[in-house]
Structures are given as C-alpha cells and as structure tokens.
Amino acid sequence: MAQPADNSDALYSVSGVRARRRAALQDQFGGIAWGADFLGFAVATFFTVVLFGIVGAIVGTVGYQMGAPVPKVGAQITNTTQNLGIAGLIGGLIALFIAYFLGGYAAGRMARFSGVAQGIGVVIWTVVVALVLGAIGAALGSRFDVASQLNLHINTGVLTTAGVISLVVTLIVMLIAAILGGLAGVAYHRSIDRAMEQTP
Question: How far apart are alpha carbons 21 and 29 in whole angstroms?
C-alpha cells in the first residue's frame, strides 16, 4: 500500500518552510570549504603583492622627493625616515586588510555558506603555506650564515620581540578582514535568494 506523502511543510508558513530548507542546506554544505578557501588565499596573495607594490612605490617616491636617505644598518634614523617608515607600516596594514577582505569575499562567494568559516579558512591556508615555505627556507638557509658573512651586528632579542608583535598584529588584521570579506561574499547569495523568494 502506498504511503501518504509527507505534508509536514504544510504545517508551516511559506517563510517558515524556506527557513527550514535554508537551515538544511546550511547543515549540508556549511563549514569550511577548503577548495574555495585556497582560491580565496590565492586572491588575497595576489592583491597583497600588488597593493604592497603600490604602497612601496608611493613611500619610495615621497622619500625621494623629501631627500630622505636610505638608512644603513646601525646608523641613526632621521625623523623623516622614521615618519616614512610609520606611513609605510600603516599603508601596508591597509593594503593587507583590503587584500584579505577580497580573498575572504572570493571564498565566501564560491562557498556560498558560512562566511566566517571561509574567512578563517583563508587565513589557515596562509599560515599553512607560510609554514611550509618557512620550513623549506630554513632547510636551505641553514647551509649559509648570511649575517656573519655580511658582518651584521643584529640584536636578535629585539628582532624576536618586534617579529612576534608584528606577526600577531598581521594575523589579527588578516583574520578580521577575511571574515568580513567572507560575510560579504555570503551576503551576496542571501540577497539573490531573497529576490528569488519574492518573485511570483
């Protein structure tokens, strides 16, 4: 004997049925989409290179116009060079934010669901690739002691502290930007879904 059709959706309003179906799709296709996030990472890397190049060109041009000398290792840094360095740092963080916003947006557009997760996935890919490249560089660079060959007197303690601080700030900027981009990418699909639902 044939079973009666499942009319459970009939007990809900149209908006309730749509919400249930959207939640089911979220459960099925939500979460980190590693393929989409890798492409988002590639987009972020591309724009990071492009925007950093623009920032470097602007800072270099302004420095040349102001006659700021290129600082030498161990030499005293002038106020003009210091101000240019601060401007370059701020410009670099802005460039990084824009690049990872675009990367997160690309991942969110491709994955369609879970914008926050896609933004986190883009940053995870960045960390993984950086660790792999760092390991390769350490393996190859261990054969050469560049600092001793160039006779550079470097305070490794200062470099370590500055490196940790810059790494933390960079990761925070990347994470916030990628998450916001992922949410914006997902919101694009939500606007299309709402428009389709309103179509008679």
Answer: 12
Instruction: For residue 181, give the nearest of 73, 80, 98, 69 by alpha carbon.
Output: 98
C-alpha span between 136 and 189 (Å, rounded): 40
Please give the distance of CA 67 from its chain centroid, rounded to a whole number. Answer: 35
The residues, ordered by sequence, that sit 6+ positions from 63 with a Cβ below 8 Å of its Cβ are 80, 81, 84
With H, G, I as helix, E, B as strand and everything else as coil, classify residue 74. Answer: coil
Amino acid identity, residue 200?
P
Cα separation, 4 vs 135, whole angstroms: 62
Per-residue pLDDT band at 104 (split at 50, 70, 90):
very high
Q: Please state, for a pLDDT cut of 90, what percent of the chain lies above it.
A: 37
CB 96 within 8 A of CB 170: yes
